Structure formats: C-alpha cells, structure tokens
Amino acid sequence: MPSNLLHLRASGVSLIIDVGDGRLPRVLHWGADLGELSDHALEEIALASVEPRVGGEFDSRHALSVLPEHSCGWMHTPGVSGSRAGRDHSTQFTVSGVQLSAADGTQRLTVTAADAVAALELTVTIELLESGLVRAKAALASTGSGGGAPYQVDQLTLLLPVPREATELLDYTGRWIRERTPQRHEFVTGTHLRESRRGKPGHDSAFLIAAGTKGFGFRSGEVWLTHVGWSGNSRHLAERANDGTGVMGGGELLFPGEVILEAGDSYETPWVYYSYSSAGLDTASARIHQWLRSLPRYPRRPRPVLVNTWEAAYFDHDHAALYALADAAAEVGAERFVLDDGWFRHRRSDNAGLGDWYVDEEIYPQGLEPLAEYVRGKGLEFGLWFEPEMINPDSDLARAHPEWIAQPHASDAAPRGGGRLPLEARRQQVLDLTHPEAYAYIEERLHSLVAALRPAYLKWDHNRDLHEAGNSVTGRPIGHAQTLAFYRLLDGLQEAFPGLEIESCSGGGARVDLGVLERAQRVWTSDCNDPLERQRMQLHTSLLVPPEMMGAHIGPPRAHTTHRSASLDFRAGTAFWGHLGIEWNVAGEEASDPATRAALTQWVALHKEHRALLHSGIVVRSDLPVGGRVLQGVVATDRSEALYSYAATDSVVEQPTGLLRLEGLHPDRTYRVFPVGPVKLSDAGPRAKPQWWADAENGRALELTGRALAVHGVQAPSLDPEEVVLIRAEGVS
Q1: pTM for the complete prediction?
Q2: 432 has catalytic annotation
Q3: Nearest-angstrom CA–CA distance, 732 and 604
Q4: Could you identify which of 113, 266, 279, 538 might form a hypothetical disulfide with 93, taking C-beta atoms 3.0 to 4.6 angstroms apart as the criterion?
C-alpha cells in the first residue's frame, strides 16, 4: 500500500484516506466497500479524485481535509477557528506523525501535526469500527503564548465529504412532549447549520443529519449520516460549496471565551460519528446499534420491566398508596419499582427543594430504607429519581451557597452570590458543577444515598436549559466544563457501584445522544406517554437508540400530557417496542378491574417472552406507501425469527391498505407467519382480518420464504385508528 494512501474496510464500508504531502488527512472515499485494492489501484483512485482547475480559483490549493483550513483554499466553514487576541487566526498545520493501528475490530488512524508560527499542536483521530461506523475527534494544544496572548478556541469542526448524489437532507426538530419530529429539504448550495445552545441537545435537537439520494427512506436509497456524540452544546452541519463539494459533520458549540488555552493547555472535541448505508437509514442505524451493544457499560442482562411512580403519585407520597403500588407492580409482573420526584426535603411541589438531597424526615421519618426493603421483598428492584444538576432558589442549598448558582457575570462585589441571575425555568436555576465545592457536595450526596439505599437504578433528570450559565467567580461560560462534570459524576457512580443502571432523562427526551449512551443504560424518550405520539417518536429515536435502551411506558387511559384517551392494547402494544415500563397507578381504580389487570399482566408476560429478540435483534422499519400506518420490526441477528408491529395512527382513504412487506428475513429460508398478542380482529368490517390471519387462528400458519415475504408480502389487517397488532415470523427451514 502506498505510504500516503490508507484503505480501511469494515462491514461493507470503505474509507480511503490520504495522509501525504505533510497535510492534514483527506478522505478520498467514504461509502460503499471498494473491495481489495492494490497499491496501483489506490494511486489511480487518488489520481481520479484530483479536481480540475477552473477560472477564478486559486492557482493552487490542497484537497479538503477532515479539519478544513482557509490556508489550503477552503473558503467555507473552517475546521479550526480561533485566535490569540486576533492574531494566528488562520492556521497551516504540517503533519509530524501518522500511526495506523488495529485492536478489537477497530482500525484507528492517529495523525499529529503542528503550526509552529501559531504555536499550536493538533491530534486528529479517525476510527473505523467493526460495524462500519466511522468516528473522528481532534485535540488542540497550545505550545506557546504567541506574544503573551493565550489561544482562544472558537470552534473545532470535523467534516467528511459527501458526494453530489446526496441531494436531500433529513434532520429533526421538536418541543417538550413532541421530540424527534422529522423534517426534510433539498441539499442545496450553502450551509445547513443546526446549533444547540441549551447546555444539552434539547427537545428541538437536530439529533442527526442524514444526506441521501433523492427519496431515500428507511429501506432504500444511499445515505450518509452524521451525529455529534456530546451531551452539551453542539453543532451539526451539512454544507454544499458553490463548486458542488459537499461535507457534513460538526462538533461542540463553544461560547465566547469558554475555552482559552494557556501554554501547555489543550482542548479535545467530542466524537463525531458518521454512518453510511447503501440501503436506506436502517443499515446506517444498525451500525450504531451494533457499536452501542459492544460497549463495556451496555446492559447485558434482561431489561427489567419497571413501574415508575410519577404519573401514579406525583408529589403525593402517601405510604399506603406507594406500598399498594409495589404490591400491584409485582402482581402484574413488573421487576423494578422507581420512586420518582418528591422524596427529599421541602419537595411538596416543583417550586422548592432541588439541591436538598436528604430524605425528607417529615414524610419518611424512618428514611427510605423501609420502602426500599419492602420493594425488594416483593421481588422488585428499587430505583430512585434525582436531578443533581439543578437547584431551586427556594432551597437550603441556595440560601447557604448562592455563589453555586450558575450566572452570567462574575460577582466580584458579592463573592457569596448576589449577581444577576438568569431567567428562571420551572422555578429552577442551574447548579454550577464547575465550583469544586458544589461538585463535591453533589458527589457526596449521591454516593451516600446510593450506598445507604442500594438502588439498582437511578433516573437522572435535567429539566431546564443552561441559559446564561456562567461561573460566578470567573464569569466565563460553563457549558463545556459542566458537561464534563456530568460525565464524571456518572462515571464515578458506576465505578463505585458496579451494576448500577442510570437513565438519562431531560424533561423527557432532551438529552439523547451517543455521548450519554456511552455511560447510561437507558434514555427517557419523552415525557409524553400518549401512544399515538409515541409511535412516531420511538420510530425515529430508534435510529440512534436500540430498543433496549429506549424507555417506553404504558401510561394511564387518558394521557397526562395530551389528554387523549387510548385503549390498553394500543398503549401496551406501543410501549412493547422499547425498554418496557408502566407509568400508571396500577393499584388505583382504573386498573383494579380484574379484566384490565389480567390484560396488563398478559402484555407484560408477552413482552418478557419476546424481549430477548426485541432487545438484541436488528431493527427494521418499512417505507409504507400508505400514510397513517407504521410497520416496524426486530429480526434476530441469525435471522431465525422476527416480530413485527403494524399500527394505525390515522384513518385512511383506502381500506384494506394492501400488502405488508415483512423485510429483513433470510431470503432463502421458509418462515411460519402468524399473529401474536391479545388483540382480536373481526371476520368482517372495519377491523377485519385477512384470510392468512384467520387460518393461523385455526392452526394453519402461512409459510413463505423470506424473499417472498419481503418482495410480495402478506395482506394487512384492517385496523381502526389507534390500534396495533403484532405479527411473528418463525423460521422452519
């Protein structure tokens, strides 16, 4: 292989990188596997990639690198942005070292470079993971003071090329209780930039950006996808230059003055992820799932069905009701009991108490140990809710340490606080974890409570944005350091208490990213348990998050957030497709009817029966030609079996709705296809079952090859709006 041309291959993906001429690495190809290539073939590809000179351009320029520099002729979003009080604003790095290594299925390229004039050193790391997922990061260090001034980092942006065939873009927006709403548009000349300035990805997060061939979908089209794996402020972008060159990527969004490098200091970006597929979003998604499932902290035991007390009790911590809820949870087959908000001092509503992380003696005079032991005595694990990064002004902690509240200016005249505070949100402010004393207090409280109560699970909430969040001593923004402090708290807890599981919740689904998923075992998809909204949110959230890490709960008959009513079958059949939970007072009147209790128990048992498949298989999502219907499934990795969900989210003009293509199965294997679950359909009418369904109920299951099921399909049942059915494919040969 030519020393300057590197060809990395994995799982149908090729990455060709040019590290010659002393320049930062240039990606010549990121996409479909090119097969084995000789040295000569690599040289020919490099030659074939050289752009012609056109009028009006530079006399010479260098090919686009993963951190594009203006000095190389790139006149668009720069890879490195910063200066020393205005000086050294444009860099020209020269490579000093190139190292290619491989371990545990990961191929890693590390490139070191320096700009002697600007007194900067740079390290770029590019990895091709076993799944075919690519990720990259950079570290920038200051080696001098450049005339006395430190180097202020404005942005480091990692970009990979995207070919002209990618003509459409997909990303996401949303709000509280409506996260992950897709939006599409053309990939035109200019910059499509999505920034999060909330100190977390946010309910309106871009989530990811996917570029693809016209009309790309879940199962079709060529797709290039990027995601910034960071739980703080971030930038995602897709950019098309006026010469047609396309790039995509991003990095952390840094506020002015947030990262200032004195001599010897360094800054490292988060990982930026890139996933390619020649067959739609599903394959790009599967690469991410495969990587997450390989991580050391990935939850490898069966995901316990949980009951969460929030929508059952809210702030009313009546002992009899909580004990009765634990009894009912055990009766319906739950395996974990999570005590949500309201257990600590002064917390009778969301107006007060955040920061006072001591069990409220007035409500729990004997502490929480009796409840925790009772729960464990019923065969349930015990879980507990926290919101450690926030503080109520009405709290003992805020009164004792106002200087621990994040604020926009240094309080030189009032060293114990008293400066201007940001706007309140949910009657909360941000606890500045960059204060060593504040961090030490939270760390001690968390570790003490976990050691005393021995919870198996923490629900970790984060309910407000980091608005005007600065350190009261320095006055500098804290978004970067606050995110690192959050990571250290999670890492420290799981090192001190092996096996402890943590859920990332942020007013629902406002902190869902690959950075937190390296540490947490679950994310809360949304505060909305309305199954109609959940059908869409879970479908798209699962592009990054595998089902076993995506919290999905059966709520009460009337949704707390939307006030829409739904049947138990639709609520349970929707929650079935994630890490199942129940957020409903199953000890209350609504659930006390024997038929309701039996139906809920049946759904929980059905989930347990199939969760080994649901939580390990390959997720498939269908591009249905009919609106108002959702078809998705999980296929075993060996393709021996599969389970599909077919849901009606709206009424349709055409009824019946045609054939359902059950995709993802082995084309040459024969499968028995039959309905499962408690939903019963009629012989005729608006809820009619097709002939194959009726035959299966009478003991004769349909038998077809995987190819026939994917290409031809089976007739869809006729469903009323807000209904869901399950279809199983079981290999017989």
Answers
A1: 0.97
A2: no
A3: 27
A4: 113
